[in-house]
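HUMAN:
Sorry, I am quite new to this. Are you able to go through these amino acid letters and fold codes? The numbers rather puzzle me.
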Amino acid sequence: MECLGPQCASMLLEWIKEQSSSSTPLKVKGAETPSTGSRQGLLWTSLPYQEDAPAIRSPEELAGAFEHLHYAVFRRYQNQLTRAERARLDNTIRNALYKIERYVDRLEGNERKEVEHALHEVRDEVREARERAERLRLQAKRADLKLAQLGTLTPEGFEEFVAEVFEALGYEVEVVGGSGDQGADLRVKRDGLLAVVQCKYHSRGVVGSPELQKFLGTVHHTRSHKGFFVTTRTFSLAAEKFVAEHPIELIDGPRLVELVQDAIGPGSSREPEPVWF
């Protein structure tokens, strides 16, 4: 059809309107319209634990209680907390254990044995976490007492003090100082990673980069992931620049005080404990 200017455009527009009003939507083969009543399946087999609920009433609630209990134990004993936070989590743990015990009393046969076994394991987890926390607390207290006497320690006493600080922070510590120590006084390990520690008891002056260059050789020679250089004094600017490019962490007197405080309890303005990387 020959177009007649504006009249042709008007006819085309009317045709498009008619087609759009009378046409039915296209369907893709194999596609189905979801029903409004369909729901997504549950992602978890357990129900959220209700701490204020008087009792556990179903296996799903029991599973939720165990999940909540494991997290509460981790949160309580693997983090720096205030006294109020520790008290709240202690109450949460006791409450969850009590409810689980009452639920077990209603079970019979193999089901009861399985839940009792799981309850026994989590009780062992709580006991071991408490014992470890108490052991670290006592180690930190001993380190705190020596911190007050830091100015009167001998080099050997300072090395022992540093070892107790690292133990209180959760490291496995081995004293290796003496002849043939290759510049390492301690070996410390945590999470499968090994580090060496050199303790320098200085009554005056600063630690310079030459000592750290020598210590870097010790880190590499012992195939350690990292080195900690601990001193009662401070480090020179050249020393700080040197370790910025090498796996060595500097711990001076003020930082040592912070680490002891970290081991004892929470604080508002302290930096985190030594990190691996």
In short: The first strand starts at residue 172 and ends at 175. DSSP finds eight helices and seven strands in the chain.
